[in-house]
Amino acid sequence: MNATGMKATEVPAIAGAYLFEPTPYADERGFFCRTFDADVVRSVGLDPDAFIQDSVSRSVRGVLRGLHLRSGAGEAKLVRCSYGRIFDVVVDLRTDSPTYRNRASFELSGETQVTLYIPAGCAHGFQALTETADTSYRIDRPHDPAEDVTIAFDDPELAIPWPLPVTSMSQRDREAPSLAKVLQHRES
């Protein structure tokens, strides 16, 4: 832990991914914590100024979003559950990565305010575990819908153990192709 009350921990299953873990200060009023620290981000070799857009999504229990990926140069992002709890999944789809095709899952929560750094070239998805779950994103490129790629959340090759039955998802996510089809399309 450094003086800022936040530490960075590598994610072994996904090369270049990190968890940024703050130390919330709690008292009878609730809590306060730092959710972003440029010095800590810089300490692991990332450029804190590269993140140019912040977004938030609100989901209800059982909602599943993903698996999403950006084509082209990809998109690096910082993801944090700012309220509630989510089951978060990252799949490494960088062909030159030592952890290519690995997946890792995490429970992110408003209680801990842990932020997950997801490198460009990795697919990402999550499921809301609480009645309300707010998920905050900080991305390093402007969003271009023409670059959106979606992979089936229930692809048997990935065998992601989603913790709840899916109560709702977008039509795009529901109709997403398999990982094999996405990879075949990327290679052609």
UniProtKB/TrEMBL annotation:
<comment type="pathway">
    <text>Carbohydrate biosynthesis; dTDP-L-rhamnose biosynthesis.</text>
</comment>
<comment type="similarity">
    <text>Belongs to the dTDP-4-dehydrorhamnose 3,5-epimerase family.</text>
</comment>
<dbReference type="InterPro" id="IPR014710">
    <property type="entry name" value="RmlC-like_jellyroll"/>
</dbReference>
<comment type="subunit">
    <text>Homodimer.</text>
</comment>
<dbReference type="InterPro" id="IPR000888">
    <property type="entry name" value="RmlC-like"/>
</dbReference>
<comment type="function">
    <text>Catalyzes the epimerization of the C3' and C5'positions of dTDP-6-deoxy-D-xylo-4-hexulose, forming dTDP-6-deoxy-L-lyxo-4-hexulose.</text>
</comment>
<dbReference type="InterPro" id="IPR011051">
    <property type="entry name" value="RmlC_Cupin_sf"/>
</dbReference>
<protein>
    <recommendedName>
        <fullName>dTDP-4-dehydrorhamnose 3,5-epimerase</fullName>
        <ecNumber>5.1.3.13</ecNumber>
    </recommendedName>
</protein>
<dbReference type="Pfam" id="PF00908">
    <property type="entry name" value="dTDP_sugar_isom"/>
</dbReference>
<keyword id="KW-0413">Isomerase</keyword>
